[in-house]
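FIELD: query
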Amino acid sequence: MVNKKAIKKHREPPFHVVKRDDMPWWGAWGIRVATIIAAFLLVGLLSMALSGRSLFETYGIMFSGVFGRIFEGRTMMLWKYLQEIAILLALALALTPAFKMKFWNCGAEGQALMGGLASIICMIELGPKLPYPVLIIVIAVTSIVAGAIWGVIPAIFKAVFNTNETLFTLMMNYIATQIIAYYVYIKGGGSNVINPVEYGNFPAVGSNDYFVNIILVAVITIVMFVYLKYSKQGYEISVVGESQNTARYIGINVKKVIVRTMVISGALCGVTGMLLVAGKDHSINVNSVGGQGFTAILMSWLGQFNPFIMAVMTALVVFLRIGVAKVADTALLNSSFSEIMVGVVILMLVGCEFFINYSFKFKHNKKEAKV
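FIELD: result
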């Protein structure tokens, strides 16, 4: 006998979220471009409201904060802007092979710090003893090796013991930070700073100290694009990322691919640490990377693992970070205002990806179903 009390009316939800069929590329990019325009407009309106300036004046301050007096032939601000893009893009490029393989490497901070540590040790200990060309080679090799070692440790544990790479790489960040803190304490004579080192710095081109960094990252961008798109190893990374079972079925050694890819990812993070130490700061501390390793994760994902698209997204985010910081500085706003605005823009960009991949299906008018 059916218990009538157990029979309840069931209301269907007013809509369902369903996965879209493949959207045409022009439709997807139309949504992304519209989102970027809307994000710029929102940032301008919020900055205008809080600074008390007009919208065009606000954008003018942002532009001058990033590019300076470029129309007067003064390009130093432009080079600094390109330098900031280079560092963030280098980290994003380093993470891309691992993320495309669906190995969630959250350890870019630690891997870059270890690369930077190798650089500063060579600069301090070997700088007065080696010829400059040899010193630069030694710095490059040791930075690459240090970053690769810090990246391959969690990869080995993942391949052999199937550990959680997200937690493992995050914990490796904390270990690297404490190692840097200890080294700085020893070499800084008990302070939190090591004075800029005069040996092993990248050469300046004219009065431009950032040219070498920018060129190196531009070359890495092109090489990474070719590697992921046209090389056999890039193909193996894609297959492993799609399905490890499929990769095994067609004869790909998944464990080998995981370890090899994380060696590459860690090595490139080590290169970034070298760029920060030998090419930019000429010193090191626990904040040398400044949290950019986590921002780089978003740049890699928003760039669809395409190095050239990642470069565009990175340029956008760095422009907002520097430009809005200038607006905040002139209006005496909190220094966190810039990071908040960048967070809002990234949130909008992440949100637009949802609408690219999913749609809402609204129910038709019909009687409620009884269960």
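FIELD: remark
Residues 366-371 have pLDDT under 50 and may be disordered.
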